[in-house]
Amino acid sequence: MPISAVAEAIRRSSSEVGGGSVEISEHEYVVRGHGYVKRLADLESVPVKVGVGGVPVTVRDLGHVHLGPEPRRGIAELDGRGEVVGGIVIMRHGENALRVIDRVKQRLADVHRSLPPGVRSSSPTTARELIHRSMRTLARADRGGAHRQRGHRAVPVAPRAAR
Fold first, then answer.
1. By CB neighbour count within 10 A (0-12 exposed, 13-18 middle, 19+ buried), where does 37 fall?
2. Whole-number Å distance between alpha carbons of 41 and 75
3. Is the N or C terminus of the chain more exposed, i.e. has fewer CB atoms within 10 Å?
4. How many Cα atoms within 13 Å fall on the side-chain side of residue 25?
5. Whole-model pTM?
6. CB of 43 within 8 A of CB of 65?
7. What would the pLDDT profile of 86-102 be if each residue is shown by its tens digit?
8. Domain 3-62 architecture
């Protein structure tokens, strides 16, 4: 008997619906509709199919029913090599981004010293590289002629038909 048949029988026997989560105003709400299943015995007695002689085959007849863990949340994976812990740094308005990055790196170095053997920390992406690339791009654009245009004025010209 395919597991999909068991899942479908359970769905039919209960109006239990999952809705996932909804984020409203930076708060996350878990959405779930409650069905008729109140105890494990309710699940065990769900008929999956009709067996020999018209006797119903229940979930209990097919296997052991028990409570499992809650779905894991907040899982992150890096480069397909397994689970990692992730973090995001939020900078206050008006702060110097490069100084903030330096302070975060120092704090990570402190944390790294307290990690158990075999556990390491890394920062695959930082804004430091993006900031420096942007500064180089602006410097190249400035050297490329943008500064020469500072003394010129734009003079509006009317289309031919308006002359």
1. middle
2. 32
3. C
4. 0
5. 0.40
6. yes
7. 888 888 999 998 898 88
8. 2-Layer Sandwich (3.30)
